[in-house]
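Sample intake sheet
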Amino acid sequence: MNHHHQQSRPTIDIDTRLVRAGAVLTAAGAVLAWTGMALGAFAVFTAGRRMIRAMDVPPTQQAVAKWQQAKEASRAGVRAWQEASDAPNGSLAR
């Protein structure tokens, strides 16, 4: 007796119209999200440009001035350290 029992596999019945509709809505949502991010970035960029134009001293000149101040402070610190190390040991303690 050779009975072949054919086991039927369960099938999944997927409504492809719903899958397509989901894909289309997801793509549309992605396009809207990217558009929103682009508009937001443009607004921030434009506001930053307006702010920089309204400054009395441009940021590059401010950076140069701060760099010069830092170099001078560093030189003054080195000079003070060298003068302190050159001084006799007894003159530092008062």
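Comment: The mean pLDDT is 89. The longest helix spans residues 16-54.
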